[in-house]
Automatic annotation (TrEMBL):
Signal peptide: 1-19
Pfam families, alphabetized: PMEI (PF04043)
InterPro entries xrefs: C/VIF1 (IPR034087), Invertase/methylesterase_inhib (IPR035513), PCW_Enzyme_Inhibitor (IPR052421), Pectinesterase_inhib_dom (IPR006501)
Protein name: Invertase/pectin methylesterase inhibitor domain superfamily
GO MF annotations, alphabetized: enzyme inhibitor activity
Pectinesterase inhibitor domain span: 17-157
Entry annotated with the keyword Disulfide bond: yes
Coiled-coil stretches noted in the UniProt entry, renumbered to this chain: none
Source organism (scientific name): Arabidopsis thaliana x Arabidopsis arenosa
CDD domains per the UniProt record, alphabetical: CIF_like (cd15796)
Keywords from the named record: Disulfide bond, Signal
Residue ranges crossing the lipid bilayer per the database entry: none
Keyword Disulfide bond: yes
UniProt family annotation: Belongs to the PMEI family.
Length: 162
């Protein structure tokens, strides 16, 4: 067990010495484990700067929004009684994909992180509004909570650029 801890420490030190800023950056977010997991799952993470990490997480927001929108589309057939709430969620997740994500990517890429933060915050708000439309019985709860968590982590990293 002690040897395992030593090995983990060596690996972590090697990562830091190779220039990875994932762990120190993720320590400044509200969910260290989620942050590290998301950034380590992308090959760009190990060599990215803070802006690059933010862009990776914005890509994760985009991927989750796409997945959620696909789930919504499937639910129309399975749960027609939820049409009104699903319509609202569909609009919300299309906003994430068509407005929030592009705004955030453009802002971070152009060095204007404040507008990137706005897009990231809005993604979390859109997910929250979607969730609320089901009056406590949402079939999308795990996806909307994931969007809120990823948005919060991303926002913390974008704020480091301000």
């Amino acid at each position: 067990m002690k040897m395992m801890k030593v090995m983990m420490l060596i690996v972590m030190m090697m990562m830091v010495s190779e220039g990875s800023i994932i762990e120190p950056t993720c320590k400044e977010t509200p969910d260290f484990s989620l942050c590290v997991s998301l950034l380590n799952s992308d090959p760009r993470g190990s060599s990215a700067d803070t802006s690059g990490l933010a862009l990776i997480l914005i890509d994760k927001i985009k991927g989750l929004a796409t997945k959620t929108l696909n789930e919504i589309n499937g639910l129309y057939k399975k749960r027609p009684e939820l049409k009104r709430a699903l319509d609202e969620c569909s609009r919300r997740y299309k906003t994430i994909l068509n407005a929030d994500v592009p705004e955030a990517i453009e802002a971070i890429s152009k060095g204007v992180p404040k507008f990137g933060e706005d897009g990231v915050i809005d993604a979390g708000v859109e997910a929250s509004v979607c969730q609320g439309g089901f009056n406590g019985r949402s079939p999308l709860t795990s996806l909307t909570k994931s969007m809120q968590k990823i948005s919060n982590v991303t926002r913390a990293i974008v704020r480091m650029l301000l």
